[in-house]
Structure formats: C-alpha cells, structure tokens
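User: Um, what's this?
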Amino acid sequence: MRTTLYYTLMLLLGFAWYKFGQNLLRKGYRDENDERVEGLVGPVGFLVAAGAGCYLLFALLRALFQRQVPCIGKGCRMQVYTLASHAGDYWANVFFLAWIVLALGYALYVTQKIWFRA
C-alpha cells in the first residue's frame, strides 16, 4: 500500500509540475499585474539545474546498464540495490531518478521557451 501511495503521489506531483509550467507558458510576456513573466529558474539556477540534471541522467543510465543503483537518501549509507537481489528498491530508486531528470528537464525547457520568445 505504501508503494502505491508513493508512486501515485509522485505522478500527481509530476502532473502539477507540468500544469504549472503550461500556465507559465500560456501567460505571455506579462502577467495580470503587468509584471514580466519569469521562467522557473534564473540564469544561475539554469546552470545548476542543467548540471544536476546531467549528473542525474548519467546516474540513471549507469543504473540501467549496470543493473545496480546506489541508495538515495540519508537512511542508507553506501548501500547498493541490485536488480537481482532488491528488485523493488532498485525500481523505486530508478523511478525517482527518472522523475527528477524529467522534472529538471521540463523546468529547463519552460525557462528556455520563456527566455527565447519571439
């Protein structure tokens, strides 16, 4: 039950993130208060998010090819989940990595679309 709740909440959070980005793209150059519409991240945040996204994408691809992923979080120090022995924990961590990569990628996409409007 906890696993189902985890995946459901992650999918709902992803949907909310998508809708938030679409609302920003739909606003145009100025919002209701005549203030300029900013992207999800600023210039420094864009570089940090791009770097973190690239690192996490590399970790995701490494996890998929090696069939092992290091545990994400404070509770497990230096523990490695393999597909053969910890399939549930492996897929949970791979799903989390994929979700974070997609969320950061979408934030970068929305920000870039806002910055380079014609």
The radius of gyration is 17 Å. Residues 18 and 106 are 8 Å apart (CA to CA).
